[in-house]
């Protein structure tokens, strides 16, 4: 194995265990600068001191364990060094793909380079979107938008958890409009980019060009609108953008990880506008959908996966489509790398190593509480100590208690103590309440699911 091969395999692995943002931020320009077979010393080249410090502090253990696994424990020690290499992975990334054998994976930053002037990436189409019960409504509404621009489905608001296909759908809408030449004035933007552009335009006093860019369109597609909560100025600006477009019969499509009414600090006037048109949800994929997606994606890559393997993957990876794709990538990568036939046993092994390295072990009580508070936009103190019984606070508190039990196996007395010295019976009660709600109410079930995703991301 060469240095390059070793690092590519490690990166393929890391990519599956990190969020896209983290992966590209910290690993984009890294490479193995030297690898001494005899001493088992590896030096990883990094672009700057900041990255070096971060990798040392946050990712050292993970990198070490991955490199050891890949080399059968030949690696003894890793260090990091600031070093720029001409043909670093950055180059490979800008070729849009990292290749490991036939394994190709597109990366977020590469996505940026493959988008056209409308902000659209041509890889997301209606053709390659698999429709199942769980996403049929959102899919139909998205197609409806293309057929009735600015009319029936305005705005279209698509909501659902991470990795379920929101970006895919909203991008497919844009691509279809461009393909059919319905209008040239389409713009896709993440709410984060909208926010950054707005701030930048304030800073550089270029408000007019900002307004022209966002208001001089026929179709505005805004992804992850929940990002603007708590950013009052941006909300204000978005409100005016929205109204301006709406009054000109411009089509607006928004995506979010939750319903407008479940975003607590969203301004009321924006909330009511988001609810004016059609709201469509995407639920986590059911078994049949997961099977169909795996079959389609394997076929796309000209990979022949037998039914037993497909069934096994679909049964064991239930969270979202992104993870399904990730597991498939990983399996194909291993297969190509070691050039071995895929059997159900190898697949089981690969998946076990995938899940055993999830960061479950390192999650703390504090983090769980923080993430729940953050999700509901509450202060940690409100959840922990407040005596308030209002639903907006009581439910998040109970959910935090529930998750401590299910995810960390924390004892009821400890849970009670962590929450401002409550009795253990309170913790038991909370657990039961939420358990029932998860079974009975889709909204709570989805929220718990989304929080869990945040816990492990
Ligand atoms: P979200 O924006 O909801 O977090 P994405 O749209 O980024 O999710 O989807 C994650 C990955 O899964 C993407 O690569 C996307 O193409 C793929 N995907 C999601 N849903 C489907 C589907 N129904 N059919 C095919 N691919 C899908
Ligand atoms: Mg998305």
Give a description of the structure:
The chain is α/β, with parallel strands linked by helices. It contains 21 helices and ten strands. A five-stranded parallel β-sheet has the order 7-8-9-6-10, sandwiched between helices. Helix 12 crosses helix 13 (307-316), helix 19 packs across helix 20 (424-440) and helix 20 packs across helix 21. The longest helix has 22 residues, at 49-70. The model is unreliable at 87-112 and 356-360 (pLDDT under 50). Bound molecules: adenosine-5'-diphosphate and magnesium ion (MG). Adenosine-5'-diphosphate (ADP) binds next to helix 7 and helix 14.
Provide a concise account of the structure shown.
The protein is α/β, with parallel strands linked by helices and 457 residues long. It has helices at residues 3-17, 20-27, 49-70, 89-94, 108-114, 136-147, 166-179, 191-203, 207-215, 232-247, 268-274, 287-300, 307-316, 321-338, 344-356, 365-375, 380-384, 391-408, 412-418, 424-440, 442-455; strands spanning 31-36, 41-46, 77-82, 98-100, 103-105, 156-160, 186-190, 219-223, 251-256, 278-282.
